[in-house]
């Protein structure tokens, strides 16, 4: 789907090029109280990339076709039966043959297509996370678990922990200097049982909450959380999903893709994969339209049918994985968070 030079640029923005060349890590799910692995699954080929750098890699050569700072507020489908007119917040219009809403889980295009049922389903779990700089000594016990990422659950509290690499000294150009640093992501989530489980409003209180919930972790993990500096921004991610409901594509003139079409939680790590498959199948649909093999309506109907069959199940599995991740006693080889990712209906 991507030209070889673009794919090479994407490969070059992996968070740890050394590990990428010889990845001997495992998919680890650990007991946060003891640090012992509960599940240890050899990984398939893993590409963990820097999101912003990957975006720049994909934009290479097409920068002039991407317009930032534009916000859609409406779609005019009545002026011409073969066109769609996007209405922006600055009152400007753009006319085309097809609108594809790919603007994330809070998609305006989705809201226009399904004004009665566009809202995401909020799950009873709360999630916060930080990006933090660590010295080689500080990150050593974390990377000894796995050089890229690992996750786990505390058996007593149901608190979930996620660690992943963002940058290595080789990537951020501090290697060989007196100030070598790694950059990592530390995230935690927990079930909501009482109002006190809601996410605080300030970074200071959010960080205090993370440190409090790390009490009872195996010492090296509790230490990692406690060492997060005061003043670190703490991001909340709303855990919610949307099951790719039906909508009227207006004879193939409006459709959805990615999180706009099937928002899902990250606990199975497959949302981006489905977005890539959406792009592949939508490109094929557009090619069939331009080649005269299918009408716009038939091509988009076919695209949407495949996507719904594939992603409705994936959304529900990811929802269950989110719940499983916080229920230690219910975790087993058949849990949604651990079962093999498979694409159904593609």
Jot down its keywords.
FAD/NAD-bd_sf; D-Amino Acid Oxidase, Chain A, domain 2; FAD; oxidoreductase; 346 residues; single chain; 14 strands; 7-stranded mixed beta sheet; FAD/NAD(P)-binding domain; 11 helices; 3-stranded antiparallel beta sheet; disordered C terminus; flavoprotein
In short:
Keywords: FAD, Flavoprotein, Monooxygenase, Oxidoreductase. Helices cover 32% and strands 20% of the residues. By secondary structure, the chain is an alpha+beta fold.
Detail the topology: elements first, then pairings.
Blueprint: H1 4-11, H2 17-21, E1 27-31, E2 37-41, H3 51-59, E3 72-76, E4 84-88, E5 93-96, E6 99-101, H4 108-113, E7 121-122, E8 125-134, H5 136-143, E9 149-153, E10 160-167, H6 169-172, E11 182-191, H7 203-213, H8 219-226, E12 235-236, E13 240-241, E14 254-256, H9 259-262, H10 271-290, H11 296-324
Parallel strand pairs: 1-9, 6-14
Antiparallel strand pairs: 1-2, 3-4, 4-5, 7-13, 8-11, 8-12, 9-10, 10-11
Can you offer a commentary on this structure?
The chain is α+β, with helices and mostly antiparallel strands. The chain has 2 domains: 136 residues, 2-Layer Sandwich (D-Amino Acid Oxidase, Chain A, domain 2), CATH 3.30.9; 146 residues, FAD/NAD(P)-binding domain. It is built from 11 helices and 14 strands. Helix 1 runs antiparallel to helix 3 and helix 10 runs antiparallel to helix 11. It is globular, with a radius of gyration of 22 Å. This is FAD binding domain protein. One of its GO terms (molecular function) is FAD binding. Keywords: FAD, Flavoprotein, Monooxygenase, Oxidoreductase. Its cofactor is FAD.
